[in-house]
Amino acid sequence: MNQKGGVGKTTCTVNLGAALAQSGKRVLLVDLDPQGNMSLHVDVEIHELDHSVYSVLTNQSTAREATIIDHLKNLSILPSNIDLSGAEIELVNTVGRETVLRTALESFIEEEGFDYVLLDCPPSLGLLSLNALTTANEVFIPLQTEFFALQGMTRLLDVVDLIKTRLDHPIEITGIIPTLYDMRTNLSKEVEQEIRRFFGKKVFKSVIHQNVRLAEAPSHGKTIFDYDQNSTGAKDFKALAREVKRQKVTA
Ligand code: ADP
Ligand code: MG
Fold first, then answer.
1. In the sheet that 68-72 helps form, which strands lie side by side, from edge to edge?
2. Which CATH superfamily is domain 9-250 in?
3. Ligand closest to CA 220
4. DSSP 136
5. Which mutation among 1, 4, 11 tests ligand 1's pocket best, with the greatest number of atoms within 8 A of CB?
């Protein structure tokens, strides 16, 4: 999650998910962005969906109906498309509107025995993001290693706190992912240091470097591992997945 666009949320969701799947974990990726970038990244035909996150949130289909189980090896996809853009408004008058997703996914996740469920959030802190927070136990925040990386962070931290206190849902920020790291500039290094000063141990040791193969992969509908196994991007996400697997479960 990060309410800023273009910081690498979708790239991280797909490729961290793919790295975990490659290492033998069963992974579910949930696309919570009406733009459907995550779904497109893994080559789901989003214009022809009978079921999607939207129909799940509005009780028109079950999570099982809407999920493409093992779309790729060990990697299942709950896709979205532009229909989802109506959901925030439609859900406003629903009782328990912040926990609709959790209610819809809970038993399905348990039945399928997914090891990891990654939720790709839209670039906003609206009802869809709140639903992601009440569904998840942990928050990962990709931060672009550029100026203004930390701008707006207070609001994001406040929202996470609100979910914890007001909705009594145990959730922790457990992973800051420095993204779009440019080795050639001092700026990336300086911002990375600033991020580490601010968030301390919550920052992953691995950073995701700027890598043209990562930028190309979505247009081929492939994860970085299917697109270029030997790229820097693939190595970065493998390293990140190793760190994630070593993390203790916090909630
Ligand atoms: P968000 O989901 O936060 O909006 P994206 O993951 O879609 O961000 O990334 C924004 C753009 O930057 C996309 O075009 C993506 O392909 C590109 N991109 C993301 N991470 C990298 C990277 N490490 N190296 C090169 N391009 C990247
Ligand atoms: Mg995105």
1. 68-72, 75-78, 27-31, 116-120
2. P-loop containing nucleotide triphosphate hydrolases (3.40.50.300)
3. 1
4. -
5. 11
Identity of residue 47 = H
With CA atoms as reference, report the closest residue to 232 among 246, 250, 216. Answer: 216
Per-residue model confidence as pLDDT tens digits over 161-195: 999 999 999 999 999 999 999 999 999 999 999 99
- Asked whether 79 and 73 are in contact (CB, 8 A), the reply is no
Phi and psi for 28 in degrees, rounded to 5? Answer: -115, 130
* CA of 215, closest atom in ligand 1: 16
* Percentages (nearest 5) of helix, strand, coil residues in the chain: 50, 15, 35
N- to C-terminal Cα separation, the chain: 18
**Confidence (pTM):** 0.97
Please report the atom of ligand 1 found closest to the CA of residue 2: 3
At 10-26, the pLDDT tens digits run 999 999 999 999 999 99
Q: How far is the CA of 62 from the centre of ligand 2 (A)?
A: 24
Is the CB of residue 240 less than 8 Å from the CB of residue 209?
no
The atom number, within ligand 1, closest to the CA of 233 reads: 23
Instruction: Measure 169 CA to ligand 1 centroid, in angstroms.
Output: 30
How buried is 165 (Cβ within 10 angstroms: 0-12 exposed, 13-18 middle, 19+ buried)? exposed
In the chain, where the domains are located: 9-250
